[in-house]
Amino acid sequence: MEAEKSGLRDQLPALLADVESLEAERDNLRDQVETATQELHEAMRKSSAFGRWVRATNTEQGRWKCAKSIVAAFRELGATGVTEASLMESAPTPSDLFDEGREALGVAIDLGCPNWWLEDTEYWSEEKIKNSLCRTVDLATLGRQPDRVRGDCLTGWGRVVQFDLATGPCVFHANVATHNVAWYSYDLRVEFKDPNGVGCDWLDGLVEGDEFRWYAIGDGVVTYETSLGGTNSIPSVKIFSYGG
Questions:
Q1: DSSP secondary structure string, 64-131?
Q2: What is the pLDDT of residues 186-198, one digit of tens each?
Q3: Residue 64 pLDDT
Q4: Burial of 135 by CB count in 10 Å (0-12 exposed, 13-18 middle, 19+ buried)?
């Protein structure tokens, strides 16, 4: 028995040394795990930041593509005064989109809005588009020098004063104002016409006496024959949207 105890006492220093070695190895492994965890978190942070940068870049490119498409559609109507910059100034920033949880909009770079015309897009609503590209009509300029606003996208209010057999289905006359006012304050007569002069049934909702909000492209001056046999010259615009 004594011999066995003596043998265990002899082994004890070696066993304690093994324990110390295992504890050191455990501490070393713990440090390695902590370091690896920190490196993983940093890699994940960088990956997330890179992903956000990619989405932001795609979003920016997508917005420009969409803006160019929209402006091209306006220019087909003769709106030479509109620019992509006017839309981009009113565009939400990538950070706004992400804050709203809308990161998926970044994929719109492949979609843009190549066939846009009077509808909401990935980046702007129809109202935002019209209000960004069209300015409130200057009645003094439109009334005296309508050629100065030729090609400009304008908006205002109007009251239909003639829409009959004499004007035809694609043209009507309205007295206009900068905002919705009493009927007797609409005092500048303007010719409104469909940009293409065909397929004008979208104007059927307007009748004489109606007051409406309009969006149109300045188109200079038109001279028409009055019911008394004389002539009269008034500003002309190409209307592309209206509402109440």
A1: HHHHHHHHHHHHHTT-TT--HHHHHTTSPPHHHHHHTT-GGGGGGGGT--TT-SSS--SS--HHHHHH
A2: 889 999 999 988 8
A3: 85
A4: middle
Q: Is the pLDDT of residue 224 over 70?
A: yes
- Other Cβ atoms closer than 10 A to 166: 12
DSSP 21-34: HHHHHHHHHHHHHH
Query: With 50 as the cut, is the pLDDT of residue 100 above it?
Result: no
Under 8 Å between Cβ of 215 and 130 = yes
In sequence order, which residues have a C-beta less than 8 Å from that of residue 114 and are 6 or more positions away? 65, 69
- For 188-207, b where at least 16 C-beta lie within 10 A, e where not — what string? bbbbbbbbeeeebeebeebe
Give the contacts of 3 (CB within 8 A, at least 6 positions apart): none
Residues 173 and 207: their CA atoms lie apart, in Å, by 10
What mean pLDDT do residues 93-110 have?
Answer: 42
pLDDT at 67 over 80: yes
What is the rounded CA–CA span in Å between residue 237 and residue 150? 8
Is the pLDDT reported for residue 143 higher than 60?
yes
Give pTM, 2 decimals: 0.70
Residues 6+ apart with CB under 8 A from 212: 157, 158, 159, 160, 174, 206, 242, 243, 244
